[in-house]
Predict the 3D structure of the following.
Amino acid sequence: MTILERIVADMKQAMRDKNEVARDTLRMLKSDVGRRELELGRAPDDAEVTEVLLRAVKTRRESLEQYEQGGRADLAEKERKEVAIIEAYLPKTMDEAEARTTIEALAKELSASQKKDMGRLMKEITARYRGQIDGKVASKIAGEILQ
């Protein structure tokens, strides 16, 4: 079952359960994936759907931060719930220790040992582990590894 098929099935279940937050969030995701499909001119694969989901999480986290700064706890809570729903469809993210081990192994595999190899290493991390390693964490660890 593809990610999109899971989203549609869960959306239908949320409708039956009258879970408005899940229903609305999943409808929005389905719509975002539909827009991506129009851009591509074909059905997106799971990797492309994951990119859409990552973008959705990022925008909601930014909104969450804005709501918290503005003192809107009710809207911030809604954004938190939406992020939790979306993250259920994303691959498990690595903690910093797992990410460090993975990035060190990848640096050895690519024979990357100097700062000038940072771009090549980051490109490979992004290609292989999109959605599993946060970009900021990856950049920090790669900077520490490469001397």
